[in-house]
Amino acid sequence: MSQIFHRSANTIARVSIFGAVFFVAGLLGLFAQVNRSPWVTDVHVAREQPIQFSHERHVAGNGIDCRYCHTSVEDAAFAGVPPTKTCMNCHSQIWTNAALLEPVRESYRSGHSLVWSKLNDLPDYVYFNHSIHINKGVGCNTCHGPVDKMPLMYAANTLQMEWCLDCHRAPEKFLRPRDEVFNMEYKQPSGDKPVAVDGKNYTDQEALGAVLAAKYHLRNVTDITSCSTCHR
Question: I need a labelling partner for 194 at 20 to 30 A (CA). Which of 3, 56, 180, 183 fits?
């Protein structure tokens, strides 16, 4: 019986199979990159807000502490959005006729809250508690980025699961003393600038983090990377 296929057909078949494998792997890699891109995550993309509120002006310029506006951040799961009255504590005295702030004055007169566009919005199946992170020594700008340098607010990190797990798998790389949590200018310890805890100076972040993890009774890595910790 004569040969139906040319001998090169075997080579073509092998190349096709291997090519298909690499093609599928490439597609999966492309999907992963797109899923991490600002096109999906909106990282570093400022959103339109009812008022173009500048954290740079209020935090760096005026020295307002995060807790003045986000009053529940140390005690509750949510940091809290300040009511209009908080804005008017200052703006009943300064910039009283500025057109930019008319929505604030109208909100105060009418009692209708301003509707802000949420930047860091986790899915409903993810549980996150601000107070736990604050009280374990996680700084505001660890997650929210350099807020004091943002004239318009944007999400600084993806908040995707792999990003959260990077911290939960090695929390000692990120912890800081509790009295530095709200300090936007805090720097991790180095040989030139050690960080003191309980009278001892630390020049290495992981050594400092290990001490703080024990001091603040941080649960072990197995616990904080368990599915049920964040998915309840």
Answer: 56
Query: Pseudo-torsion of CA 166, 214, 230, 27, nearest 10°?
Result: 10
Cβ atoms 140, 184 nearer than 8 A = yes
Separation between Cα atoms, residue 173 and residue 170, nearest integer Å:
6
* H helices present in the chain, as ranges: 8-36, 38-41, 55, 66-69, 84-91, 102-110, 130-135, 140-144, 161-169, 205-215, 221-224, 227-230
> Residue holding tokens 């809250």?
113
Residue at token pair 């374990």: 136
Backbone angles phi, psi at 166, to 5 degrees: -55, -35
At 124, is the secondary structure helix, strand, or coil? coil
Closest by CA position to 45, among listed 117, 113, 129: 117
Tokens matching residue 99: 């057109």
Looking at residue 61, the DSSP 8-state letter turns out to be I
Burial class (CB in 10 A: 0-12, 13-18, 19+), 41: middle
Contacts 24+ apart (CB under 8 A), 202-211: 205/172, 205/173, 206/172, 206/173, 208/172, 208/175, 208/176, 209/171, 209/172, 209/173, 209/174, 209/175, 210/172
